């Protein structure tokens, strides 16, 4: 159980800070936790949930998280540009105290660079934060965690810890009204024309450069992607065999491969296919087969006027937030790569009633595709194999895997937060 105390034992806060404490009731303040999130929107989203939970468990005051502005996307957005910060603070005030900034006397430490800063150990049990991080907070009064992705273990945590992670994710983290309103407009436009599928086609330049996956790329594109990979020193893997990586299922499906799989799954060409992604590498040339198979191919840029999206230009996380909202509401969600957005959306759709999410087995699929393209499989054999292999990969209730000493290989908590789900609700989702 999380510990409870009678009051915050510290003074000198501004009046609005004091008022924010009155609804918490039982609380003791052990110090302050600052966090700097790293990665894209959904990597940061999961990290924020973890950091709120850790702050509550340690009885420390959390400062509104700082978002990553130095990643590949270089998005300058602040927390309040993407999330409703006031809702975030007030909706959690019965659990944890969150402030927009440090009290002035402590803020000066940040300005002079004297705050204790460190990256916590990845996939750590909550006891690590109690035994290693809390003593540092008590000693220095303020601790800054400068990396936050995957810092809390998937499994083996107390039930109230897991449920609080869900509460933050599904209730406290609400997008700004501007993002929410535009998302509703996109969904309404799609619904006017019938059912729609969201295809998270992760075939952007950064993903291909990072992964080294170059299937279908010409020589100039391969060279461009290789140069880009070497240009980012924190992308540690440099020499990559694209063919081997693809056969191991570690590459996002290409647009051409995706078109084949959608057809094999009997996705009718009358359905709208909403592309949730950035600019597809190779442009119209690489999208030709998918557009030919599914003429009702749309994206936010084709549904909205340029003026609608003007505010969001050069703010990749805000654009991703729009795609996130549309993905949640789609009749079917299909990611072509199991990145952070795919996983977090999968988990959120499970929470909303196990809405159908087709989780593609890329290792199996590329083998089937190669057999079909070589003539070893007929179309019917290929299609039947694809459908049969994905019968139980549609977001049904399932137990999250536990692999002792290999946390990276476990099912991700945010893809399947089973402690917060209602298994009986599955079956109400109709399949296409």
TrEMBL record:
It is found in: Membrane. GO terms for molecular function: glycosyltransferase activity. It holds the Pfam family O-FucT. Belongs to the glycosyltransferase GT106 family. Keywords: Carbohydrate metabolism, Fucose metabolism, Glycoprotein, Glycosyltransferase, Membrane, Signal-anchor, Transferase, Transmembrane, Transmembrane helix. The keyword Hydrolase does not apply. It comes from the Eukaryota. This is O-fucosyltransferase family protein. Transmembrane segments: none annotated. It is a single-pass type II membrane protein. Its main location: membrane. GO terms for cellular component: cytoplasm; membrane. Pathway: Glycan metabolism. GO terms for biological process: fucose metabolic process. InterPro entries: FucosylTrfase_pln, GDP-Fuc_O-FucTrfase.
